[in-house]
């Protein structure tokens, strides 16, 4: 029996409204030499039935029903059952372009690559934007080790990665992925993509990064956790991620470089998950990352994405800021507590001390800042995020990451 070219693995849990579109987009591929492995991760809705119905119609589909576990467990189970030369992961609430597998396969074969990464589309509230990688091209083993890996998580600009973490929009060689995926601790549920992508990169001999967008990532309001519910558990999980990345990457990177990369990666993860305002057990704010702002400052929050939602939720715990408006150019109905998202025009004639652009992406920040200035917003009121390495180190130590820096 000839080897299948690509195993497409789709972990599935509570996404019945989106799953058919995902499966249909895969079955409609121009490339046909693949198997589709649908991993029902103990989903309590109609997902198991949807999977089984599709499997009856197409013999390329294999359905695995398992007890509920984290996303990582579904990815592992899919890989255990995969027979392809390559593996592509697709999240069950996303969908892909008709030529997704075709182009991924050609990029891998033509360039003899162990890893292929592409651009993607981001869909949020019906609007689609293109997200392209910072770096494109074909890179050999020496370039990976000396240029890509030392900047993979942090390239010197806060929250800028030489290679995005996502396992979707990538193509892996199954024989190499087997060496990485099963070593990732099942308890890692924050940053699990980083725990796969970067160690895999470290053992890759050829990397191809393309600017062609082929994957549609759906950012759902109902999938965004509005606040950290248990900081002890969350930070413990991040600690597991830190330890795993140190173990896997220390043979390839200097101690100083690895320290800095992990430091900034952990910090960005904590910011997004916490909304920036870090509370202690008594709900007192022990860290405020928004430069110039102080307790009781009158604040406008721009962005209804995940960071913006987390910030509103975090602030509701202590009322640290006096939030006077919550706005977004992608105006849609959403509220957290007494705050509703309003159109951008609503801030033109109100008084406020500072405006927080709730994003850790510097490109997005600068673009939004330019638009706000066109509306007459004083740029001195638009605040930056604190990225001082000394301050970040103090914060992580305070949060229990005593060994944040390698000895």
Automatic annotation (TrEMBL):
Domain of life the protein comes from: Bacteria
Keyword Metal-binding in annotation: no
One GO molecular-function entry: hexosyltransferase activity
UniProt keywords, alphabetically: Glycosyltransferase, Transferase
InterPro entries the UniProt entry points to: Glyco_trans_2-like, Nucleotide-diphossugar_trans
Every Glycosyltransferase 2-like domain range: 7-180
Keyword Magnesium assigned: no
Protein name listed in UniProt: Glycosyltransferase (GT2)
């Amino acid at each position: 029996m000839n080897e299948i070219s690509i195993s497409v693995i789709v972990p599935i849990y509570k996404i019945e409204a989106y799953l058919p579109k995902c499966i249909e987009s895969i079955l409609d591929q121009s490339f046909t030499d693949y198997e589709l492995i649908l991993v029902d991760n103990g989903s309590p809705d109609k997902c198991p039935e949807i999977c089984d119905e599709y499997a009856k119609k197409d013999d390329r589909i294999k359905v695995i029903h398992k007890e509920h576990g984290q996303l990582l467990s579904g990815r592992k189970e899919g890989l255990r059952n995969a027979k392809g030369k390559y593996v592509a992961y697709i999240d069950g609430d996303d969908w892909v372009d008709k030529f997704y597998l075709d182009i991924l396969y050609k990029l891998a074969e033509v360039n003899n690559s162990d890893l292929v990464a592409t651009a993607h589309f981001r869909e949020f509230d019906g609007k689609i934007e293109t997200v392209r990688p910072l770096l494109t091209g074909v890179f050999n083993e020496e370039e990976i080790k000396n240029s890509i890996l030392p900047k993979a998580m942090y390239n010197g600009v806060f929250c800028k990665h030489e290679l995005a973490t996502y396992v979707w929009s990538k193509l892996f060689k199954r024989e190499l992925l087997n060496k990485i995926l099963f070593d990732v601790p099942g308890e890692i549920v924050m940053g699990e993509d980083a725990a796969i992508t970067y160690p895999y990169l470290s053992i890759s001999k050829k990397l191809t990064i393309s600017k062609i967008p082929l994957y549609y990532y759906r950012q759902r309001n109902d999938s965004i956790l509005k606040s950290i519910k248990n900081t002890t558990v969350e930070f413990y999980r991040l600690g597991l991620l830190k330890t795993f990345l140190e173990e896997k990457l220390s043979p390839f990177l200097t101690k100083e470089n690895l320290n800095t990369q992990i430091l900034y990666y952990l910090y960005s993860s904590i910011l997004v998950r916490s909304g920036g305002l870090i509370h202690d057990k008594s709900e007192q704010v022990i860290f405020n990352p928004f430069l110039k702002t102080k307790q009781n400052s009158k604040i406008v929050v721009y962005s209804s994405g995940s960071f913006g939602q987390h910030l509103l939720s975090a602030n509701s715990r202590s009322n640290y800021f006096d939030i006077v408006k919550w706005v977004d150019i992608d105006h849609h109905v959403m509220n957290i507590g007494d705050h509703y998202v309003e159109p951008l025009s609503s801030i033109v004639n109100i008084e406020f001390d500072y405006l927080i652009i709730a994003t850790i992406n510097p490109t997005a920040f600068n673009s939004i800042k330019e638009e706000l200035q066109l509306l007459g917003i004083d740029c001195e009121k638009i605040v930056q995020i604190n990225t001082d390495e000394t301050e970040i180190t103090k914060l992580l130590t305070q949060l229990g990451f005593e060994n944040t820096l390698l000895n």
